[in-house]
Amino acid sequence: MTSQGSKTPNEKLRLIVVTGVSGSGRASTMRILEDLGFYCIDNLPVALAPTMLELVTERDPTLSKVALGIDARERLFFPEWPRVFAQLEASGFRPEIIFLDAADAVLARRYSETRRPHPLAHAGTTVAESIRRERLALAEMRERANRIIDTSALTVHELREIITAIVASPGDQAEMAITLVSFGFKYGTPVGLDLMFDVRFIPNPFFVDELRGLDGHDPKVRAFVMNQPTAVAFLDQVESLMKFLIPLYKKEGKRHLAIGLGCTGGRHRSPVLVQELAKRLSAFGLPIQTRDQDIHRQET
Length: 300
What we know:
- By secondary structure, the chain is of the alpha/beta class.
- The chain has two domains: about 10-165, P-loop containing nucleotide triphosphate hydrolases (Rossmann fold, 3-Layer(aba) Sandwich); about 175-290, no CATH class.
- It is built from eleven helices and nine strands.
- The protein has helices at about 10, 25-35, 50-60, 75-90, 105-115, 125-145, 155-165, 210, 220-225, 230-250, 270-280, and strands spanning about 15-20, 40, 65-70, 95-100, 145-150, 175-185, 195-200, 255-265, 290.
- Helix 2 (about 25-35) packs across helix 7 and helix 10 (about 230-250) packs across helix 11.
- The longest helix has 23 residues, at about 230-250.
- It is globular, with a radius of gyration of 21 Å.
- The protein starts with 8 loop residues before the first helix and ends in an 8-residue tail after the last strand.
């Protein structure tokens, strides 16, 4: 029997379950976790997970990090997962779920480029139909996820940065990392944001002839945006909000905070404000990543 307040060996083990829609990057994520020192097991029948984890920890009591990859083709997983997760928790494991997602159009393009069939496709069904079926099957798991990552516009290097931030140990310098994402509302909102701000109230450089063809990385666009009193006031308010929220998130053990700033096309205002907010939040001493999801799209 363990004394009150002490941890069992299983509670000391970091268990991450990686799942999500097919084509969203599960295999890449598992490789990243393996590089980060996790003992990775992919495509394991879910019903065997509790038994396998007990065997692995008995064989190597020093093991501290395990990642399980759940493929959509594991059809028995969907009806079984509540019982399996309850069994894992009863055994002292605390599974964290990383759910990978991407826009339907991106998933369809990836399957077209690789010429691979969708794992849930049947004769006569289209990729779009298979994606819809899979989303319905995964809806409950997505709801339970600790972290949802939209890989639609991510490179492998950007995915690595996000996964590294998420799994950073509480004792590491990167106990919590922040990702700032600029995007255009006309193209849809990114998946998995914790906080989202609409900055379309700021005058749009798109309607200034000499700025229309530039983007938010250009000094002229930056000067135009930052000369707007509403832009400065907005950054002041968000910075104040973050000073309040970040200590509370850290207290709750949150490892990654994703903040989205959206304008109409994601090309002018939101990229400027993401960079300016990153400068301000850097004073908090936490790792900050920035990503401009739609900056290269041509706004019309």
